[in-house]
Amino acid sequence: MKPIYLDLPGVAAALSLSESTVKKLVREKNLPAPRELSGRRVAWLVRELEEWAEGRPVSAMLPPSGPATPGDLQGA
Asked: How many domains does the chain have?
């Protein structure tokens, strides 16, 4: 069964972004906000993240060659 929700580390991994970038995008209202699952637990609805990702513009910039490293994500 496909997951319905992702936590912050899962969202960051799925989107190839750092956790701090995910938080920043949510604060700026450039990424869907997480849903409240319980009093102290939030997570992102996978469907909303997929819709957001599919709506991103196509880039003329090519990704860097080689495997990504944590330092590559600092400017993300």
From this structure: 1
Q: Is residue 43 part of a domain?
A: yes
Parallel, antiparallel, or unpaired for β 35-38 and 5-6? unpaired
Asked whether the whole model's pTM tops 0.70, one would answer yes
In a domain, 65, yes or no: no
Mean pLDDT of each 10-residue bin along the chain, 76 residues long? 96 96 98 96 98 94 72 52
Residue 31: inside a domain: yes
List b or e across 35-68, with b for residues whose CB sees 16 or more CB atoms inside 10 angstroms: eeeeeeeebbebeebeeeeeeeeeeeeeeeeeee
